[in-house]
């Protein structure tokens, strides 16, 4: 509810409460769907807008950096990328419980997704080696990252991970944004958007910061389009933004 107050300060309280409940329903559905995502894929429940862009990436043999956020059911993104024939390292944060993590890996493997959980320097080197081989990488870029550049999100400062922009700049490639919305009847519409071209000015840190802002602005646009689809429950803004919010209560 605090996140909703920050993002939508003029929204009536009753509307924010309804939106919070709608988001929790989304989260519950996503947990249930993940176990049977291979069946949903086979049943053709994912409508893709912009599939030609994925095929162009596949045919080019050159890697891109897929970037997106936690909308509707993020498993549809991984399933669509791998299903299109794009070789891609699907990164994720390993579950703390190793038995749960093993189940997650097995469920995703059923629809062709091979997961990669980078940790420390070795993980970063593996990502770089994969991209050097022509493999793309997929990263979520909508969660708090305390050491990242400070950019604007819903008019408030946030820190966001610089990794996707760093990789794109290093390999001279694009950020390829993707997102998904939920449709009625356990169906989804996934959109592959226009790629984000990153400028290389010689000021690497400024170039990275512009890339981080570009993908953060993309996430904000998607949230505004379909707020119930976004995963609102994580602590997205820094402490000072929440403190300022409480001072207004």
What does this structure look like?
This protein has 249 residues and is an alpha/beta fold. It has 10 helices and 9 strands. The chain has helices spanning 2-7, 13-34, 37-42, 51-60, 75-83, 98-109, 120-132, 163-170, 204-225, 239-248; strands at 46-49, 65-68, 88-91, 115-116, 136-140, 150-153, 156-159, 175-183, 187-192. β6 (150-153) and β7 form a beta hairpin. The chain is globular. The chain starts with a helix and ends with a helix.
DSSP helix count? 10
State the order of secondary-structure elements, H for helix, E for strand.
HHHEHEHEHEHEEEHEEHH
Number of strands: 9
Rg, nearest Å: 18 Å
Strands ordered across the widest β-sheet:
1-9-8-2-5-3-4
Largest sheet: 7 strands, mixed
**Helix percentage range:** 40-55%
Mean pLDDT: 90
User: How would you classify the helix and strand content by structural class?
Assistant: alpha/beta
Short description:
With 249 residues, the chain is α/β, with parallel strands linked by helices. The protein has helices at residues 2-7, 13-34, 37-42, 51-60, 75-83, 98-109, 120-132, 163-170, 204-225, 239-248; strands at residues 46-49, 65-68, 88-91, 115-116, 136-140, 150-153, 156-159, 175-183, 187-192. It has ten helices and nine strands.
